[in-house]
Structures are given as C-alpha cells and as structure tokens.
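DUF3105 domain-containing protein: structure, please.
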Amino acid sequence: MGSAKNKSSAARKARIEEMRRAEQARERRNRILTIGASLVVVAGLVVGGVVLIQSQSEEKAQADKTPGKFVTGKDGVKTWNKTLTQTHVKTGVTYPMEPPVGGDHHAAWMNCNGDVYTKELKNENAVHSLEHGAVWVTYTSKASKADVAALAEKVKKTPYSLMSPDEKQKDPIMLSAWGHQRTVTSASDPNVDKFFETYVQGEQTPEKGAVCTGGLTE
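Here you go.
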C-alpha cells in the first residue's frame, strides 16, 4: 500500500517537473522571439535613419549647388533668396548681381557715414559697408544731374549710407542693402524714403551697430 502511494507521488512529481521544464522552455523561446523582433525593429530604425540622413544630406548638397536669385516682393524690393556668405577675402570677388548686395568681401569697409563718392568703388569694400547696415545708392550716367544732386544731399544727411557711380548696373538709379535691392525712377520717388527707412540699420543687417567710420575714403 505504502509502495503504491510512493510510486504515485513520484509520478506526480515527475509530471510537475516535466511541465515546469516545458514552461521554462516556452519562456525561453518567447524571450528569444521578443529579442529577435526587437533587434529587427532597431535595425529597421537604424537603416531608415541612415537613409533619411543621406537623403537630407543629398537634398542640402543639391540646394547648395543651386544658384541664388532675386525674388521681387509686392513692394518692388528684390530679396536674394539664399544666405549670403560673409568671409573676409584679399582677392576680387565675382558677385552674381550688380551692384552686389552681400557675399564675401574685403576686411576694409568704405566709410558710410553719409559719404558721397564721385568715383566707382570696389565692390568688395562697399559690400562690407552693407554688412554694417548701410544703404548704398548707385547711379549711372543716364541719371539726371538733378537726381544725382538730390540723392547726394539725402545721403549726406543720413548716417549708415553711401553713394557712388556704377556704370555696370542695369538701371540709372538703384538702392542696395544687405540681401535687398530696388530700382527707383528718380530722387523724388517715394520708394527712396521707404527703402532708407526700412534698411538703414534694418533687420537685415548682419553686424548691426558696427561702425561706418574708420574705413576707406576712396
């Protein structure tokens, strides 16, 4: 009798142990499957991230190669649509617009404390003045003497402005600031005052507050 009970108890323990081993085996399989799925997800995220970064890098590189251009607003002011570089250089710079509205330039600026120049300026020096927040008035021989004289008087009364002839520009009278430019019809054109009010030490100025004196005078 006791022998039969012992055998039954031993068999029951053996079944329980077998069930425990089976449960442990299932848990191990589940852990392996979970870890495997997690690794697949992580690998997918890594690959997706690499592809996204490569795609963004390629898009940026392509955008960097795309030449900038002027975009004309409703007010007639043209705005350069790409960031303009600000590196100081000792060599000449070929600018994509005339007169230039920004870009690499010489370390020396043209005095722009209401300075009126009678000779053409080196663009590399005048661009540095624009970086300081100046408005640059330029004109060709097609501009009337009366308009030139009137504009000169306005510039002389306006700190952070300068004026000079430029026979290479397209229109008789043009106004330039860092990243912005417009043509005006005459000295009495109301857009002259609007341009000065907006761009003399305006929000476009990369180095607001930098001096317009102590530079070159011709």
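Notes: Strands lie at 70-72, 78-80, 113-116, 135-139, 161-165, 173-177, 180-183.
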